[in-house]
Amino acid sequence: MLALLFCMGLYRVLIAPLVRLRDRSHELRTPLSCLRVAAEGGLQGQSLTQRVMHEVQLMQRLVDDTLELAWLDTERPRLAAEPVDLEALWDMLCERACFESDWEPERLVYAVAPGCHLSCNLNALALALENILRNAIRYSPEAGLIRLCGQAQADEWHLWLEDQGPGVPQQLAQIFLPVTRLNGARPGDGGFGLGLSIARSAIDGQGGRMYAENAHPGLRIYLHLPAA
């Protein structure tokens, strides 16, 4: 038994991060290849600068996400809790999301019951919600809406964020695994990257639970979090 526990710990600390880094290698190669094509394709001046900045930003996010997930998975940090006003946090995240995506604020609907105050780590909760929201925006149809709903139950808040995309017909449980590729499941490149993996690790680290189901139409991500 001790040998088994040692091997499991060794895999979590040493092997698993290397496997994830291997899986991310193809993601990192894509912007690098685009940079080379841009450099060799005759782009000049402002066009070249904009293309380079776009690809560099993609690489930066890939590296940051990889390091974030490795830290959450290997260190298993104990995240200090504090009272969090969910509506105020949502407003801040929506402002940032609209700036990044050119969405209108009216398409991001807050429909949580009044008085939602959570006992959570603010930074970890913001990280999780931001990644869930980005994923929903990425797979939403044109003019689609995203809704954050929720209600209090006993000493918890049950929240769910839903989009109006096509959902995930198969392999629903796997969307929280790093670098999951679901061929044909959702529009785009079929990859969920690290965003949802980071989100679930951040929620798990503060005593919460996170899972998903299809909403017909759309994907619904559930969060169970302690009330303040």
Explain what you see:
- By secondary structure, this protein is of the alpha+beta class.
- It folds into two domains: 2-75; 82-226, 2-Layer Sandwich (Heat Shock Protein 90), CATH 3.30.565.10.
- 50% of the residues lie in helices and 18% in strands.
- The relative contact order is 0.13.
- The protein has helices spanning 2-40, 45-75, 86-101, 122-138, 195-204, and strands spanning 82-85, 108-112, 117-120, 146-153, 156-162, 209-214, 219-226.
- It contains five helices and seven strands; from the N terminus they run ααβαββαββαββ.
- The chain is globular, with a radius of gyration of 19 Å.
- The strands form two sheets. The protein has a five-stranded mixed sheet with strand order 2-4-5-7-6, with helices on one face.
- A hairpin with a 2-residue loop joins strand 4 and strand 5 (156-162).
- The longest helix is centred in the first third of the chain and has 39 residues, at 2-40.
- Helix 2 runs parallel beside helix 5 (195-204) and helix 3 (86-101) crosses helix 4 (122-138).
Say how many strands there are: 7
Average predicted confidence as pLDDT: 75
Shape: globular
- Structural class of the secondary structure composition? alpha+beta
Contiguous low-pLDDT stretches (5 residues minimum) are 1-20, 181-192
What is the topology, as strand order, of the major beta sheet?
2-4-5-7-6
Helices and strands, in order, run as HHEHEEHEEHEE
End-to-end Cα distance, whole Å, is 39 Å
Rg (C-alpha, Å): 19 Å
**Percentage of residues in helical conformation:** 40-55%
Q: How many distinct domains?
A: 2
* CATH secondary-structure class of the largest domain: Alpha Beta
What would the CATH topology of the largest domain be?
Heat Shock Protein 90
The largest sheet is:
5 strands, mixed
In the CATH hierarchy, what is the architecture of the largest domain at level 2?
2-Layer Sandwich
**CATH superfamily annotation of the largest domain:** Histidine kinase-like ATPase, C-terminal domain
Percent range for β-strand residues: 15-25%
> Given the structure, what is the number of helices?
5
